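Q: For a teaching session next week I want to show students how multiple molecules come together into a single three-dimensional assembly. I've collected the sequence lines for a complex. Could you give me the predicted structure tokens for the whole thing so I can convert them for display?
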Amino acid sequence: MSRRLSKGDTAMGYGHAERNLALIRQLQAETRALLCTLEQPDPEHSAWLQGVASSERQAVHQRRRDKHLSHSADRARSLLRCGVLIPIAAGNITRATIALTTAGLPSGLAGERQTAASSAMKGYKKMGKAKDIHEAVGAELDFDPLVNAAGITVKNMNGQVALNGIVSSYPQYLEAAAAAQRVAGVTDVHNHLEVVLPDGDYRDDAMLTTAANNALTLNVPCRPVLRRPPGTAT
Amino acid sequence: MPAGVEAAARDGNLTLTGIVQYGPQRTAAEAAVAGLTGVRNVKDDIEIAWDADPFDVSLLVQDALDRYALIPDDSDVAVDTHGNTVTLAGHVRTWAEHDAVIGAAWMAGGVFGVRDDLHVTG
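A: Of course. Below is the structure for the complete assembly, covering every listed component.
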């Protein structure tokens, strides 16, 4: 989630205190809703949970709980990072922390919030997104079913992403670059991937030439790929 | 595919040659061979032949941008054509918008190249 102060907003504007409080209330409500869903396992899960031993069931439940909690913690942290909470007077933050604690959060998490709040109070600085982009591109490559991300290493230099390593086909080479390109924050992709064909996929020159010319004759232009592969002249 | 587009393979690297009229025909040719088993890379040497007036090309592209849903009404993207190269400059908010602008420029007849001076504001 990204929420940032819009143009013209000042960090010290008194008028924003109310809006910030509203945001905190919304966050509280969401946290409460999340915690509610934790108590009652959703039907989809409970079906297969029947077959699982109770100790495992507990572990699964715990994992799910952790996931939900880390989600809400992330959300709170991103609100803090975006500076949404900064303009609020210190008293309000304490109030918010108390309110969050009463919402049923374990004290450890509330403590974490408080630390985040106080460190944010010291000085608002835009957090570097370098690590996030690196992770996000890696996640997108993993997520994309058309790419085998196992042989790919990602390097991020301030939004300029370099892909190194090997893939096993040319379409994967193209798709990997496209996947990196669609991640937020990526400004450019340097595709240094190498296509290493599996032995079974190797075709000799004559065979490939015939196949390619057949493909050109047999194909009618259809939904052209507009983005040219990086590295080729446009 | 228009007649005259040919492919030659060398150790898995395909080179496409020939003459077409529109940029998208060239990319379509690339797409047609990209998925073949045994392809390691595709080099596109297809030429685009068309006798077009640069002024008309700018106009056509600008009109296309005005029609597109992805491009906001207050977009500051400027279209400038010299010879057969379209230069696009200005700001776009997303890569989707960027691709739509680049795609529109390629779509016009007689465009040999598109220079991308767009700035993605993110």
